[in-house]
Amino acid sequence: MEQLARLEDLPTEYVDTLTQKNLVPLWPSLRNVLPPVKPIPNTQATAWKFKDIKPLLIEAGELTPIEKAERRVLVLANPGHGLENMRATSVIYLGMQLLLPKEWAPAHRHTPNAVRLIVEGEKAYTTVEGQKCPMSHGDLILTPSGLWHEHGHDGDEPVIWLDVLDLPLVYYMEASFVEGGECQPVVSTADKPNYAAGLAPVKHFVRAENNSYPMMRYPWSDAKQLLIDLAQKDAEGPIQVAYVNPETGEDCQKIIGYSALMVRAGETVRFSPRSAAQVFHIIEGQVQINIDDKQYDLEKADTACAPCFANIDLINSSNQDCFIFIADEAPIQKKLGLYSVRDRA
Ligand code: 1HN
């Protein structure tokens, strides 16, 4: 492609006049906003070790009472976006949250969608629109856009979880805001439908918009068992299951996709380059992740992110199966017609 003229090639006076009139010449920036062949991501391959995060999070628990934090979180920030912008990718926010015994993180609702993936500890819970969801290791709990949620803790050890939000995108769209409230009344969940039965209600009246989130808590024990069953049937990998809305079979949230991947002992999973950036969080086991020319050894509770169109290998050279939680930007990219997958170089 032709090299285009630079800003410095224009007379300073002319550029100054443009600036005064709120005008900008396109051609010096055209190759930046439309790079040839593939995007030039700000997102850098980055890994965060839980053994680095945990002591700092526990220290945050000593330094800042929950009343002064509301949510006691250390954000996993990608240096390629500038740490202060609190992004793991251009769409995905990641944070590790600490709740100490008897603490309570008050109810609020906001426009960004969130999920929690429980990392450590027992007997904390998230209440979503009155539905109390117990938190155990590896469980996924949804708090979709606009739904009230709060966290409490009845146990006697610290509880830590990974928050994943579409905050960077929603904030960029100038659509991010919160409303605060009081404690929510807890409603009974006894009459909640059991979607594990493989049945869903037939909708006799088509609603203008189906905005429902029928399932808020995805227990890890169920997801893990499904992966193990699939692995027994399928000699060829990769063994991966998506967290879906059980009524529609679609992605469980609208912007970020969530899935669980099993990398069996001795197995290597090679991902084709794709337009959506991805986040990997180790639920159980250990794995080496190669993201283009970077290599990280990930253990339980470690987290890494990979930019768009990266060549990604997950190598499990241990003798234990590895289970990985994945968040990616595919749902929003598919809705916008931007999603693509390429062959490995
Ligand atoms: C939020 O609501 C929570 O409810 C955690 O636990 C992290 C980060 C940004 C915006 C809202 C929570 C958050 C958040």
Describe this structure in words.
- This protein is α+β, with helices and mostly antiparallel strands.
- The protein has a single domain, classed as Jelly Rolls, CATH 2.60.120.
- 15% of the residues lie in helices and 30% in strands.
- The protein contains six helices and 21 strands.
- The protein has a six-stranded antiparallel β-sheet. A six-stranded antiparallel β-sheet has the order 2-3-10-5-8-12.
- The relative contact order is 0.14.
- The structure holds 1-hydroxynaphthalene-2-carboxylic acid.
- The site of 1-hydroxynaphthalene-2-carboxylic acid (1HN) has 12 residues, from strand 3, strand 4, strand 9 and strand 10.
Strand content: 25-35%
Work out the radius of gyration.
22 Å
Q: How confident is the prediction overall: mean pLDDT? A: 94
At the first level of CATH, what is the class? Mainly Beta
Outline: globular
Give the bound compounds.
1-hydroxynaphthalene-2-carboxylic acid
Helix content: 10-25%
**What is the name of the CATH architecture?**
Sandwich
Give the number of DSSP strands. Answer: 21
Biggest beta sheet summary: 6 strands, antiparallel
Sketch the topology as an H/E string, one letter per element.
HHEHEEEEEEEEEHEEHEEEEEEEEEH
The oligomerization state is: single chain
Low-pLDDT residue spans: none
Alpha-carbon distance between the two ends: 22 Å
